[in-house]
Amino acid sequence: MTRHVTDLLRLTGVTKDYGGLRAVANLTLTFDADQMTAIIGPNGAGKTTLFSMIAGTVAPSAGRIAFRARDITGLRPDRICRLGIARTFQIVRPFWNLDVRDHLRAAAAFGGHRNLSAREVNEILDLTGLAGRAADRPRALTLAGCKRLEIARALATGARLLLLDETMAGLTPEETREAIALVRHIRESGRSVMLIEHVLRAVTDLCDRAIVLDYGEVIADGAPAGVLVDPGVRKAYLGED
Amino acid sequence: MSIRLTRPALALAAVVALLALVPLLLDAAGAARYLPRLLVIGLLYVSCAVAWDLVGGLAGQVSFGHATFFGVGAFTAAILVRAGVPLAITLAPAAALAAAYAALWGWPCLRLRGPFFAIATIGVGEATRLVALSLETVTGGATGLTLPVAGGRHTAFYLALGLAAIAVAASSGIRRSRLGLGLSCIREEVDAAESIGIPIGRLQLQALMVSAAIVGAAGAVYARYLYYVEPGDVFSFNRSIGFILMAIIGGVNTLWGPAAGAVLFLALEQVLLSSFPSLHLGIYGLLLIAVMLFEPQGLLAAGRRLRLRRAPQA
Question: Any idea which of A3-7, B175-179, B267-271 has the lowest mean pLDDT?
Fold first, then answer.
């Protein structure tokens, strides 16, 4: 194995069993800081389980996870967040009775960023298109708005790596276009992004690398254009034979 | 921001100043002892309800075990006073021991969420009461402990007033602090809170310990006031339920709601205990159902709504 200085995240033999079901099987993968990676695959392929293991909400049954050359296997989610990994949730989980600005204040206060200045909060609000909504509660936002709030909250933790779980799901084409632009912005601001995505346009537009999971195993790994025409992938993912 | 900071502080100072005059007025009027008793108990209820709400309201973990803190505080004070320690000095150790007891059972129980935590606290409360009853050498068992009569006539009142002021100030301060923000996030969505770096267990334990310290100090004043403590009273399950009712009736997760609820609870308790001694728990239950059905945010919210409705006509 070669060790790059840019190694951001390294999974070694990561496995997750739920009873007799193997959700993630012996994954060994390395992610560079300057690569944007998409995890794709059919439902139940183990994508969200993989994210949950990286973020610390699910403990791997076996294997190690290292972030910036530091072993984070088995650490609590809040600890992993303070080390620099923030996630969004596939089903949005805002703080329903807190306004948008308080979401960012809380993320900044606890995420390791400590004192995010008012200017930085406003920058994140601008970037995520929530500038006019700072005093609103999540109930007043659309689904797309709630998804942007998830991203804004993750950004405000000051994380270097963002795990975006199906950020585009359920959005209109126009909203999807905006979301793609937002993720591109985040990447250009120097943070690393991994995303789980079913919207293949987002994958081809945004990512340098696509990893296809099926039954918890990697069935393809490479540039999105090549991966998406791979016969095995088409069979697993699109149901072609 | 500074205006928002000073308004509750001013309101608190005004209420405390007014209440501080009450014993002097009563002395001048030569009133019976009944009203001062109500005042002391009322102020202790206010302290406990406001403190309970830091855990049950702000942090969203409903505790049925707060009588444990009240009892630990009461017995700490009783034992120290019997050993010759002046009462005022017993408040700090009573608060500290109650906080330590909170750490002891909070650490394991706070790993549980929602109803599971609530059920665990019922167990803790009952276990504590039974242990206190059986530890006769420490607590006097079912007989309890009698305290030597000492101190001025209004000592308990002023201690209770000071404690209630501290409780409201602490609640107000915590609600505006980083701790309060973190607890709000935990209450709203615990997994998301954890995902943005909030150490769930640590923050909840901090809230529980602050809450316990206030309730423990209230127990100490209560011991001083009655000159008598008994496990079946200070550790009783009804006491824990009372704190919950006060907060819910007045308005959960608000600064003044639990205080208002405590006053109303006290008034009801007086009427119900004397008129319907066997029915009073049932009537609390009906009241609780009514609040949940018609104004889940409590009486303060109901009052605000009435004002809003009346405002356009004015």
Answer: A3-7
Query: Is A45 part of any domain?
Result: yes
Q: Per the domain annotation, does A183 fall within a domain? A: no
Of A81, A93, A97, which is closest to B197 when you measure between CB atoms?
A81
A83 touches chain B (CB under 8 A): no
Q: Contact B266/B41 with Cβ under 8 angstroms?
A: yes
pLDDT digits (tens, 9 = 90+) for A85-105: 999 998 999 999 999 999 999
Which CATH number do you get for residue A18? 3.40.50.300
Q: Is A72 a domain residue?
A: yes
Flag whether residue A102 sits within 8 Å of chain B, measured between CB atoms: yes
> How many structural domains does chain A have?
1
Closest of B52, B38, B69 to residue B251, by C-alpha: B52
The answer for B 153-212 residues in CB contact with A (under 8 A) is 178, 181-182, 184-185, 188-189, 191-200
Give the number of other Cβ atoms within 10 Å of residue B269's Cβ. Answer: 18
Q: State the DSSP string of A55-107.
A: HTSS--SEEEEEETTEE-TT--HHHHHHHTEEE--SS----TTS-HHHHHHHH
Which domain does A51 fall in, by range?
1-76+199-241
Note whether residue A10 is domain-resident. yes
Residue extents of the structural domains in chain B: 2-313
Alpha carbon distance, N-terminus to C-terminus of chain B: 30
Q: Which residues of A are less than 8 Å from B178 in CB distance?
A: 109-110
User: Which stretch of A48-62, A84-98, B33-47, B96-110 has the lowest confidence by average pLDDT?
Assistant: B33-47
The CATH number for B2-313, chosen from 2.60.40, 2.40.128, 1.10.3470, 1.10.10, is: 1.10.3470
Specify the 3-state DSSP secondary structure of A8.
strand
Looking at residue B35, its pLDDT comes to: 66
